[in-house]
Amino acid sequence: MSTNRRETRQRTAVSAALDQVEEFVSAQQLHTLLRGAGDGVGLATVYRTLQQLAEDGEVDVLKSAENESMYRRCSRGHHHHLLCRSCRLTVEVESPSIEKWAQKVATANGFAEVDHVVEITGICAECQAKMR
């Protein structure tokens, strides 16, 4: 779904910073990382660039418990996420049954060109063990 956007210094810097992190990060966290590396990319530019990267399918976007958008470089095509509410561990999952269900619900309600995002939150096994 990638478009032919102009590759700017700021876009390159934001993209490179995303490549350095494995977990989901907020725009503010990424901005702090960039500033720490001596890059003067403004916070508004970070937000705008992350939104463009998300639109282009280059990053995943999840909402935090505080409803803040969190970003991470996509590792593969369409997928869904399991997200630990405690440690923020994220597991990418694929599920043909979810795809069939989403299409069935959309069709039953007269929708076409359907897209969807599934985020399942819970507590991972490691965090559960720590809580015992």
Describe the structure in your own words.
The chain is of the alpha+beta class. It folds into two domains: 1-75, Orthogonal Bundle (Arc Repressor Mutant, subunit A); 77-132, 2-Layer Sandwich (Dna Ligase, domain 1). Helix content is 42%, strand content 19%. A three-stranded antiparallel β-sheet has the order 1-3-2. Strands 5-4-6 form a three-stranded mixed β-sheet, with no helix packed on it. Strand 4 and strand 5 form a beta hairpin. Helix 1 (9-20) crosses helix 3. The longest helix has 13 residues, at 43-55. It is flat. The termini are far apart. The model has no long low-confidence stretch (mean pLDDT 86).
Helix and strand topology:
Blueprint: H1 9-20, E1 25-26, H2 27-36, H3 43-55, E2 59-63, E3 69-73, E4 80-84, E5 90-93, H4 96-108, E6 119-122, H5 125-131
Parallel strand pairs: 4-6
Antiparallel strand pairs: 1-3, 2-3, 4-5
Helix pairs in contact: 1-2, 1-3, 2-3
Summarize, please.
The chain has 132 residues and is an alpha+beta fold. It has helices spanning 9-20, 27-36, 43-55, 96-108, 125-131, and strands at residues 25-26, 59-63, 69-73, 80-84, 90-93, 119-122. The longest helix has 13 residues, at 43-55.
